[in-house]
Specification:
alpha/beta, 8-stranded mixed β-barrel, 11 helices, 44% helix, 21% strand, globular, binds ligand C2E, binds magnesium ion, EAL domain-containing protein
Amino acid sequence: GQARHTASGHALYRGSPDREFSRRLSLMGELRHAIARNELLLYCQPKVDLESQRVCGAEALVRWQHPKHGMLSTGEFIKIAEHAGLITPLTQWVLEAAFRQSYAWVEAGMDLPMSVNLSAHDLRDPRLLDRIKGLFDTWGTAPELIQFELTESALMEEPVGALEILTRLKDLGVELLIDDFGTGYSSLTYLQKIPVDTLKIDQSFVANMLASDDSEIIVRSTIELGHNLGLKIVAEGVETQAVWERLVALGCDTAQGYLISRPIPAGEFPDWERHSCWHAQDPLRKA
Ligand code: C2E
Ligand code: MG
Ligand code: MG
Ligand code: MG
């Protein structure tokens, strides 16, 4: 690969296309074994109710602790998993980890819902629903404790299959969220047709909402649209107090982002929650 040079003279191989390509190719091979080698980790990021300022849930985010490259960003290896046809085993790993963790949280006296991200590929998997049902049975998990997030663009890739699978998931009694809302061009008609409960406004709009009028308008009108359709609204990527306050003023329901916490190892979550200023009080907490 051709090295680029920064102003300070350091070579920047990461930007080189050949180098990046061969890195991806070898990661694809390694990802096949990562599950067996126990290199995947479940992290969770809290969601906080903007009104009560209490933790009201968490999102499961998978991490890959690579022996050589260290902790890998999910955004990158999810794409690799998609190209390598590895979404099904990856989703299965995340689902099993999420149900196991949710059970452990209840044991630890914390019954907060955990949302799991699904990919477009999962919407084409005819066995997904039975596997999810199987996990609810195995762990005796209450349907309120597991939720599913699907990106707006995944829904648009597979609108008919999505409607079918979301309807059957909804029959299990779980909450469904549309992720990265505002980036996927769904129509009002479609939104009214699918059984979703919550819209998550994409973090790009939230992060820019104080600097860009366009972003602010998108955030504000998504909150209005969602509320008019009877949906709850989560803002993702909340990094500053100023953004938090603007979201409160706009009537947004829930916030998620670095202002509250970065994603943390799922096993440490109850401890973090107990000691944080956002901690959920009774009657949510059992112990
Ligand atoms: P997402 O579901 O929209 O998750 C939010 C992403 O934004 C996470 O990145 C999270 O760490 C990051 N984030 C949270 N708060 C902030 C903030 O305040 N500022 C900034 N700059 N970023 C923030 P992550 O974990 O790298 O995940 C990236 C994407 O990969 C996720 O986007 C999701 O679409 C996908 N993903 C993650 N875990 C899974 C999984 O288990 N299964 C599937 N299918 N996809 C997953
Ligand atoms: Mg998500
Ligand atoms: Mg998102
Ligand atoms: Mg996102």
